[in-house]
């Protein structure tokens, strides 16, 4: 089974691209979705212990947690020490299941793939990209996003040019959904 890492900076179209793989029948594990599930209960006690006041009704309040950790490197490291091992366990279970089911290809959708050394767990890496003005417009259109928050997120990410340099495949998502769908189909055929 080929393990394809899917990554890209914020606002580059990673989630849409992951959905294109899923629609084509490729199993996809989303690190973001795993974090959401874990925040909805399993990790809430540990996060509340580390960051009091960030859990409501047994679920992590992502907004409150973000306010506590964004721009605070030690706090982010403490949060990652709680979250990353749990996400990794889910990823391993996903890959074992995909292998057992005979999938020829599986996708690991990991926003911080290069930042966390995740490329070592992948056979190939696909980076999604878009021109900076497109990225900026997409991100600032998100609810609750601000220039400061966008800048803080970008500061934690490997620059787009470096990601593209390190990738096996690059997909420019600014060319439209149909172009992305064709590229994904071609990539699936090539990797299978």
Automatic annotation (TrEMBL):
GO terms for cellular component: cytoplasm. ATP binds at residues 11-16. The keyword Membrane does not apply. It is found in: Cytoplasm. It comes from the Bacteria. Pathway: Cofactor biosynthesis; coenzyme A biosynthesis; CoA from (R)-pantothenate: step 5/5. The keyword ATP-binding applies. One of its GO terms (biological process) is coenzyme A biosynthetic process. It is an enzyme of class 2 (transferase). Pfam families: CoaE. Its EC number is 2.7.1.24. Keywords: ATP-binding, Coenzyme A biosynthesis, Cytoplasm, Kinase, Nucleotide-binding, Transferase. SUPFAM superfamilies: P-loop containing nucleoside triphosphate hydrolases. It catalyses: 3'-dephospho-CoA + ATP = ADP + CoA + H(+). GO terms for molecular function: ATP binding; dephospho-CoA kinase activity. InterPro entries: Depp_CoAkinase, P-loop_NTPase. Belongs to the CoaE family. Catalyzes the phosphorylation of the 3'-hydroxyl group of dephosphocoenzyme A to form coenzyme A. This is Dephospho-CoA kinase. It comes from Aureimonas endophytica. The gene is coaE.
């Amino acid at each position: 089974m080929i393990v394809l890492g899917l990554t890209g900076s914020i606002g580059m179209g990673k989630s849409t691209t992951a959905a294109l793989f899923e629609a084509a029948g490729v199993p996809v594990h989303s690190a973001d979705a795993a974090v959401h599930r874990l925040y909805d209960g399993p990790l809430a006690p540990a996060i509340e212990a580390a960051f009091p006041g960030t859990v409501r009704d047994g679920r992590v309040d992502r907004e409150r947690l973000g306010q506590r950790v964004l721009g605070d490197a030690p706090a982010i490291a403490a949060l990652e020490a709680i979250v990353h091992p749990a996400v990794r366990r889910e990823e391993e279970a996903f890959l074992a299941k995909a292998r057992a089911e005979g999938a020829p290809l599986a996708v690991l959708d990991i926003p911080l793939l290069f930042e966390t050394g995740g490329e070592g767990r992948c056979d190939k890496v696909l980076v999604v990209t878009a021109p900076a003005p497109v990225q900026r417009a997409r991100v600032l259109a998100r609810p609750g996003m601000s220039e400061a928050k966008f800048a803080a997120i970008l500061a934690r990410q490997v620059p787009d040019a470096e990601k593209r340099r390190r990738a096996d495949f690059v997909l420019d998502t600014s060319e439209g959904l149909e172009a992305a769908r064709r590229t994904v189909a071609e990539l699936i055929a090539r990797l299978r």
